[in-house]
Design a protein that fits this description.
40% helix; single chain; 125 residues; four-stranded parallel sheet
């Protein structure tokens, strides 16, 4: 969490399970995170996942219930390098469409940071 930038950042690596998503959601939905207008979920290091559209739908419902009422607007970038995971992330993006929080999926972290208006720092590419 970077309060100065208004950013909640979650980085996933290796195998990601439904339990991992639930754990991250519990942290992300805590008051100190839920009020930040920018978010980045970086799945660039994910090598395997058992996530389904149902898990994604459940995550959307929880986030919409907790985050949306407190924000007039916001942006969340999802970095998904793997083609299959990119498809799941796009499902999330589409389900979040009526939200005041704009969600966009990227294949590269650098593009996500640029879209969020954040410094690129030392990120490769």
């Amino acid at each position: 969490m970077d309060e100065a930038l208004g950013l909640a950042e979650m980085i996933f690596e290796g195998r990601v399970t439904e339990a991992d998503v639930e754990e991250v959601l519990d942290a992300y939905l805590a008051p100190e995170y839920a009020e930040l207008p920018l978010g980045i979920f970086d799945f660039g290091g994910v090598t395997e996942t058992d996530l389904t559209n149902e898990v994604i739908g459940s995550a959307v419902a929880r986030i919409a219930e907790v985050v949306d009422p407190g924000l007039k607007r916001g942006k969340v970038a999802i970095v998904a390098v793997d083609e299959d995971f990119f498809g799941l992330a796009r499902t999330y993006q589409l389900l979040r469409d009526p939200s005041p929080v704009e969600v966009k999926v990227f294949g590269r972290r650098r593009d996500a940071l640029r879209w969020l208006g954040l410094p690129l720092g030392d990120d490769p590419e």
